[in-house]
Amino acid sequence: MVVGMSEKIDRMRLNLRVDEDVKQAFNSEVKFKFGKCRPYAGVELERELRYFLDQGEIAELRKVVCELADSSENSTNEKNSYSTNRDKTTVVSYRIAEDIRNRLVTVAEDDFRSPGELVEAIMYGYTTEGSAIERLTQKLKKVAAKSHTDERDSISAKERRTKTIAQELEGGEFKLDDFDEAVKLARGIGVGDHAREEYLPRVLEELDYTWHPQNPELFIEGEIFDFPDVRDPTNKPLILMDEEDKRLAIKVAAYRNKTKSFGTTFSIDEAVDLFRGKVRRSTVRPLMRDIADTSPGYKYNQKRNMLNIDKKLVKRHPNENQEVLIIVHR
Q: Which sequence spans correspond to the domains of the chain?
């Protein structure tokens, strides 16, 4: 068995007549790019034909780029882009894949022009607009530029909404209901969980506000309290919590649980209750497992779906359990 052998392609001479000036310009462009015509002229022309006919890898690349650009570009647009009086013609005899030549002849007949005229139009496009690769590259650059513009516009819109909401709320404490009312003044976004998740953290940062240590639905100026470096996440509004906050909240609540005759435990149901029923059991379970894997003194009981906490062992590993010990014992 031979590995790495490419599939054999039957080739034949193109042998079609095109405008002499167009052929000369095409050859000059190829020579400028590669230093000489042969064998590059034939290779470049076959790639252009495959691009035009939607054949092979270049066509797949074109499809992806056009999808990214949300473009309706198609072969019809290109094949009608050029016409000439053809004062003097000459034969193009580069060798190309036989199936590509046959397909080209069929497409030309459907378009009511000669195969030579179609090849001529493709060669002309190569000299005036660049190769298929160059055209795709330009399209990708436009896609990238538009993407960056859209991103800047999106950021700018979020900044405007954030400032609108913040201006409505500044000057005193506010609750979630007050936040929802302020959202109504910001164009382009409606009241709801998405607005809270997306804009509440931004507004708090804009105002230099934070959540109240005893009331998770109240937000106050950050300078009112002398907050500790490590705050108790069990009092933090759920909407502001990330995965690390939830993990620490479970660790703290579990450690605080009363020790019974069979030890200290913390069940999945207790964790769900900790988050006021707004976090699913399927979310809590992997958090508990992760705690058991990374925090000495916490062990996950798979059979009973609960954490077992050895408080003495937790204390003997202050590095891994530092935040829990600071919060509980300060």
A: 11-130, 148-221, 233-329
Give the CATH architecture of domain 148-221. Answer: Orthogonal Bundle (1.10)
- Phi first, then psi: give them for residue 326, nearest 5 degrees: -65, -45
Measured CA distances, 208 to 174, 204, 218, 320 (Å): 13, 6, 14, 31
Q: Tell me if the pTM is above 0.70.
A: no
Asked whether the predicted pLDDT for residue 323 surpasses 70, the reply is yes
Q: How far apart are CA 29 and CA 31, in angstroms?
A: 5
CB contact set of 312 (below 8 Å; sequence gap of 6+)? 297
Q: For residue 5, what pLDDT is reported?
A: 38
Nearest CA to 314 among 304, 302, 326? 326
Position 77 pLDDT exceeds 80: no
Asked if residue 286 has a cis previous peptide bond (ω within 30° of 0), the answer is no
Same fold, 148-221 and 233-329: yes
The pLDDT tens digits of the residues spanning 213-222 come to 888 889 999 8
Q: φ and ψ at 182, to 5 degrees?
A: -70, -35
Q: Which amino acid is at 309?
A: I
* Architecture category of domain 233-329 in CATH: Orthogonal Bundle (1.10)
Cis peptide before 39 (omega within 30 of 0): yes
Average pLDDT in the chain: 86
